[in-house]
Design brief:
- The protein is α/β, with parallel strands linked by helices.
- The chain has 8 helices and 11 strands.
- The strands form 3 sheets. The chain has a 7-stranded mixed sheet with strand order 3-2-1-4-5-11-10, with helices on both faces. A two-stranded antiparallel sheet has the order 6-7.
- The longest helix has 27 residues.
- The N and C termini lie far apart (43 Å).
């Protein structure tokens, strides 16, 4: 009888430990929504644009490798356009090489959710990769603006890199621009000049954010730089993608 009782106690203890571990895992598991452009025309140049591969790949793997679940949404749903320049071998990084061979992620991109059908309540944070595409569609997308506002007002991190801070152009909280008085960065005017697109893009990101009251800062062109102001995380350029993801991950891990 004593042995039977001992075995029962051991079994019950093991069961409790397993149940506790499962509950802890559920608490630890975080879920992030990536919002990607559907726009593929580079103004009136006749060239293609879209999202910049490094700016999706580097944050995706930085988060996914730490157990974060990621969904991807676009304004139109389905396959988002990739900026052909970002797929060029000259722009390759370890993350983009991994991306090119990642059949699971490539399949996920073919079947992105429609932005109008996602709900911030299902996620712990939102992240926007750049590329020039977002300046045309996401910057003017009412669904995107409402989504960002909802994440922010529900005390969830919002993160953007390179051109993606441009999608904050029309986002307001209680009638004021979200970026007003906030420290931000993004693709600098000098970087836009360097790629020869200052007269092509619908607006210069640095100018618009400053016009909306943001405290804009930057480092040298093409160098990694990210700024965190409360829930708002922004990165300057493709090289800043992993920095943004690291700051986002710290915020996610800090939340119970």
């Amino acid at each position: 009888m004593k042995k039977t009782a001992l075995f029962a106690i051991i079994a019950l203890t093991a069961s409790c430990i397993t149940a506790t571990a499962q509950k802890q895992n559920k608490k630890i598991m975080k879920k992030v929504l990536f919002v990607v452009t559907s726009h593929d025309k580079l103004g009136n140049t006749g060239e293609k644009t879209g999202f910049w591969t490094e700016e999706l790949a580097a944050p995706y793997y930085a988060l996914a490798d730490e157990g974060v679940q990621i969904d991807i949404a676009t304004p139109l749903g389905g396959q988002p356009p990739i900026d052909p320049k970002s797929a060029d071998p000259s722009s390759a990084t370890e993350d983009t090489k991994r991306f090119d061979a990642d059949t699971v992620l490539l399949e996920k991109l073919k079947n992105t959710k429609k932005l109008s059908e996602v709900n911030q309540a299902d996620y712990d944070a939102v992240f926007y990769p750049g590329g020039h595409g977002p300046l045309w569609d996401l910057a003017e997308d009412a669904n995107s603006a409402k989504l960002i506002e909802s994440f922010y007002t529900h005390k969830k991190p919002i993160a953007f890199v390179c051109h993606a801070p441009g999608v904050l152009k029309n986002v307001k909280i209680n009638g004021e621009y979200l970026v007003k008085g906030k420290k931000v960065t993004g693709f600098a005017n000098t970087e836009e000049e360097a790629v020869g697109l200052t007269k092509i893009v619908p607006f210069l990101l640095e100018d618009v954010l400053q016009q909306n009251g943001a405290i804009f800062s930057k480092t040298d062109d093409w160098h990694p730089y990210a700024v965190e102001d409360g829930l708002l995380i922004t990165g300057q350029n493709p090289a800043s993608s992993k920095l943004v993801a690291e700051k986002l991950l710290l915020q996610l891990n800090a939340k119970k």
